[in-house]
Amino acid sequence: MNVRRLIPTAALAGAVALGATALTACSGGGATGSKDGKLAVTASFYPMQFLAEQIGKDHVKVDGLTKPGVEPHDLEITPRQTAQLGEADVVLYLKSLQPAVDKAVAQSGVKNVVDAATLTRLEAHASAGHDHGAEEGHAEGEGHDHGHGEAGTDPHVWLDPAKYAEVAKGVGAALEKADPSHAADYRKNTDELVGQLTALDTEFKDSLKNTASRTFITTHAAFGYLAERYGLDQEGISGVDPESEPSPARMKELQEVAKKENVSTVFFETLASDKTAKVLASDTGLKTDVLDPLEGISDKSQGADYFEVMRSNLKNLQKALGSK
Length: 324
Known about the structure:
8 strands, four-stranded parallel beta sheet, about 325 residues, globular
């Protein structure tokens, strides 16, 4: 195991903070393990971290396992992090998205474990053309060798504001249970966040109601829930990892789809290479733009938090689809 490679991935700051948590947890800080009597929450990656911060506010200390700029699917976890995970009061994760996290959580012995996949209904989405099975499309379409939960279900629920709101409610309930003395605040913050997500959902609905095209092409087939929610059609560049080139057959198929469906743009994401998108775009005379799967926020992100990046995604979708 290449330790040097693991250090940046392990988010040193997070490890140090988790270390501090571990010390105070042992000295018996009552119900809460963190310094200052705060609830120590460990979140697997950005969408979980954002919920914990928004709902917990001053009552929680949140550590993220995935460092900004790291592709979450590729995350590896050190034995030390696994041990420190055991000291958290609450662990939030999304089962089947990050195999390393699933394993670490199973070994950690944490009492309050919240799996976001259980807080809303997961569905299977074919990530590629209509003739691909959901499972094949998903396992390959992302080019990561991680499983996708039950029979090829799609884990990217946070890209649908309505589903993300369901997850937020579940996270709020879990924080209330773990720290009952601040239950009223958690409830108020959850309601506030759900209100903001409902407003975002309405914005997407209204902005994408009338468009010249309903189809978009993306290198990272993460937008199945979003497409379904707003009546759009996601075409993933199938059978490839984001770094490699699509097969000639798939290129030809996508060129035909682009022509038939009046597609103007091929989307790529911020955390992976844009090579595939550029190859396809130059072969089809299409434009390229960013559609961010919001698996992490980095300095390349088009916005500082979930809401800003989602609004950038909306703007880019409107432009690509020809909003009227």
